[in-house]
């Protein structure tokens, strides 16, 4: 199983925001901290806003911040909202499935169970569970260190 960059970046944005709760941040700031294209990040932030995970504050002095407390944002909800689909194999899509062995194949059930187990684990965690207590300063200073090394 592989998450798209969109889902990966979505989780990274939320972690960044959870580690900077005292202020709103810009997509430019997050782009520089993670070395992610700002244009790609804007699409990620838009989908997080649509999903109700971030509040987008427009304008020159705008930015983004979490729309909910970290303990109210389940990791599974973010992944479900930011992944385009979980068609692990062709037979998961009833509309476009052309696999000739579907009537006698048990693979769909096995993979479906694995996918359910994946989400069952993610359902147990919120964004708050992914934050090191008191680690905000360390998180941002670590990102700053990485940014400085990459510029050298």
Task: Kindly describe this structure.
The protein is mainly alpha-helical and 152 residues long. It has one domain: Arc Repressor Mutant, subunit A. Helix content is 50%, strand content 5%. The protein has helices spanning 5-18, 27-34, 38-50, 75-82, 107-123, 136-151, and strands at 54-57, 63-66. The protein has a two-stranded antiparallel ribbon. Helix 1 (5-18) crosses helix 3 (38-50) and helix 1 (5-18) packs across helix 4 (75-82). The model is unreliable at 146-152 (pLDDT under 50).
Main beta-sheet annotation: 2 strands, antiparallel
Q: Tally of extended strands?
A: 2
Low-confidence stretches: 146-152
Q: What is the CATH class? A: Mainly Alpha
How large is the count of helical segments?
6
Compute the average pLDDT.
85
The fourth-level CATH homologous superfamily is Winged helix-like DNA-binding domain superfamily/Winged helix DNA-binding domain
Q: Topology of this protein?
A:
Layout: H1 5-18, H2 27-34, H3 38-50, E1 54-57, E2 63-66, H4 75-82, H5 107-123, H6 136-151
Antiparallel strand pairs: 1-2
List its traits.
elongated; 6 helices; Arc Repressor Mutant, subunit A; 2 strands; mainly alpha; single chain; two-stranded antiparallel sheet
Give the gist of this structure.
The protein is mainly alpha-helical. It has helices at residues 5-18, 27-34, 38-50, 75-82, 107-123, 136-151, and strands at residues 54-57, 63-66.
């Amino acid at each position: 199983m592989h998450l798209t960059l969109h889902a990966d970046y979505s989780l990274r944005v939320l972690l960044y925001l959870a580690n900077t709760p005292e202020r709103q941040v810009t997509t430019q700031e997050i782009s520089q901290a993670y070395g992610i294209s700002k244009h790609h990040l804007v699409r990620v932030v838009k989908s997080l806003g649509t999903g109700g995970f971030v509040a987008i504050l427009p304008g020159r002095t705008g930015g983004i911040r979490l729309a909910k407390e970290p303990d109210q944002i389940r990791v599974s909800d973010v992944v479900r909202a930011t992944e385009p689909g979980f068609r692990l194999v062709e037979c998961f899509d009833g509309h476009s499935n052309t696999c000739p062995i579907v009537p006698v194949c048990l693979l769909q059930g096995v993979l479906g169970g694995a996918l359910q187990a994946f989400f069952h684990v993610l359902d147990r965690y919120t964004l708050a569970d992914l934050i090191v207590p008191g680690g905000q300063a360390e998180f941002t200073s670590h990102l700053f260190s990485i940014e400085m090394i990459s510029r050298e």
